[in-house]
Amino acid sequence: MAALGANLAIAASKFVAFAFSGSSSMLAEGVHSLADSGNQFLLLVGGKRAQREATPQHPFGYGRERFIYAFLVSIVLFSVGGMFAIYEGYEKIRHPHQLEHWYWPVGVLVFAIIAEGFSFRTAIKESNELRGKLSWAQFIRRAKAPELPVVLLEDFGALIGLALALGGVGLALLTGDGVWDGIGTVCIGVLLVLIALVLAAETKSLLLGEAAGLEDVKKIEAAVVDGRTVTGIIHMRTLHLGPEELLIAAKIAVQHDDTAAEVASAINAAEARIRAAVPIARVIYLEPDIYSEAEAAAGPDPKATPGGPTPHPAGH
Question: Where is the region Disordered (predicted)?
Answer without folding.
Answer: 297-316
